[in-house]
Amino acid sequence: MNKKEVRQSFENSSFEKIKFTKRNRETVHQLYEKTSKQAEAVSSRYIKPVLSFSVCVLLIVAFIPLAETKIFTDGQTGKLMIEGNDMRAGNNEVTTKEQLLERLKDPLLFFGSFEGKYIYFNKNKNVTKKITYQVSTKSDKINTNNNTSFLQIIEGTGIHEQKLFDEVAIKKQLANSSDVFPMLPSMINNKEEWTYQGTDKVKGEKAIKIKSDSFQAWFHSKTGILLKYKNKDGSYLETTGLKFNDVINREVFRIGTIEPTGTIHEFPDEMVFFMEPPRYKLIMDMKLIKAETHAFPDQNQIKQTITGKDGQTLTYSVKQVMEDSMPPGDKEVDLKDGKNIVITKTDRSIDLKWRDEKNDLNYNLIYQGDVSQNMLEKMLDSITKK
Amino acid sequence: MEGINTQHYSFEDSEARAQIMEEIMKDFGDDILRLAFSYVRDHGTAEDIAQEVFLRCYTKIDQFRQESNLKTWLYKITVNRCKDHLRSAYFKKTFLTDVINKIRYKKTESTESISIEKQDSERVVQEILSLPTKFCEVLYLYYYEELTLQEISDLINVNLNTLKSRLTRGRQLLKHKLEGGDFHE
């Protein structure tokens, strides 16, 4: 082979399909905008150091959660590094098994939100997952309910789940569900099986260690967040980044926004039947405030999460949809009941917009991922039934 | 190396800066992403790195040395960032599993509809990318990016003679992997 042939090999291979897309470019613009604003915020903080210090002292005295700890992974050493001060947590480090259990059951005690990244390898399934999650109890202007909390899990590059809860429910969700940390509910439910092993270090951070016959786990001593997990069978979890009480990253986490590459479609506070879920899961008569659909091309399936007015959520898989994909483009469809729907299909999503004249409401429904003709017909059918 | 020189640009306001960056990303986005991919061999990670590189470019573009070539500068940041990533503990833990999964995926992806020529090309690329980084980077930059040895030497901070021996050794390894096929400069 000569130089020309090697280059041709690259050009003929799938390597040439690697493209820096419009979406990548948009992400860079958005990140720059965000970092610029953060830089402005930081500089203004330094302009008034005395005032900031005074505020901090007052807040400590008042015992108000003001954890602004950011932990992130240093690219070169892999060491977890902390920025800012987590003042309240600093005086409340976990030192006993009982304290750890309490912290695990109420992980939001010391912060209103957290965002984390970890890698999880499940030996039994031989699957490695890169998860990004964000939990917040803070009200958000785009959520319809001010008391709403949310949890989002991003698996790899695709959004896996988005859920809304009330503040009590989200604590239960964190402690009892395997959504965020797959192994956590088992640890809490089988608390007799493990023992507290004292303090240890994980990537330079103080951690408390627990141990059972089958696993070892390390938790951040100040917050109780799981940092590391090792199972005898070879499964492991390793945190690669954490942020507490940080500004919600809208580039990664989109709740309720209607954007070209968004994954959310919103419904007003009224009864909506959207893609009939499997009957065995129809356990509650929900007034929906949100329905979300996410495509998983790797798994060849679509999952939907519907959210009720009272914070109930229901996630279920929609049948296989990846064959017979629609070509990109726009078209208008008139449904049987007279609704006129504009369909916009792009490479990454399908966007349906229609207006309910009777109730003076506009609807926008966005699917991310490929959608078959058959799937589209079902979607339109479900809208007609409504 | 060809490329845009920032002396043609002005940075009077944020809108102008955004337009310039859009132009730069359109011009060099694919190259930077592919270069990152050649190091990290994971599309998602390569995307992250390419975005970081352009974000850095965004913030530093007005301090950019006029005499330098923008593409060289972007390449240098990319190479350094990729090497940082490869040194990280996170990468070391995940790399093996990812590579195994990719190899499996590639094997199942192969169908009759893919031509023999295409398969051969895929294989050559796969073999180059599977070489140790120090050989892969040289082969990639020399054969695909068509940089001169001096340019590569400047880019990755490696002595010219060392670079030559790496190129030779890289060729030998590739030839061996391709099972006896001829490999000429």
Automatic annotation (TrEMBL), chain A:
The chain crosses the membrane at residues 46-67. It comes from the Bacteria. The keyword Transmembrane helix applies. Keywords: Membrane, Transmembrane, Transmembrane helix. This is DUF4367 domain-containing protein.
UniProtKB/TrEMBL annotation, chain B:
GO terms for molecular function: DNA binding; sigma factor activity. GO terms for biological process: DNA-templated transcription initiation. Transmembrane segments: none annotated. Pfam families: Sigma70_r2, Sigma70_r4_2. Residues 123-174 form the RNA polymerase sigma factor 70 region 4 type domain. Keywords: Sigma factor, Transcription, Transcription regulation. It comes from the Bacteria. InterPro entries: RNA_pol_sigma-70-like, RNA_pol_sigma-70_dom, RNA_pol_sigma70_r2, RNA_pol_sigma70_r4_t2, RNA_pol_sigma_r2, RNA_pol_sigma_r3/r4-like, WH-like_DNA-bd_sf. Residues 27-89 form the RNA polymerase sigma-70 region domain. Belongs to the sigma-70 factor family. ECF subfamily. NCBIfam families: PRK09415.1, sigma70-ECF. This is Sigma-70 family RNA polymerase sigma factor.
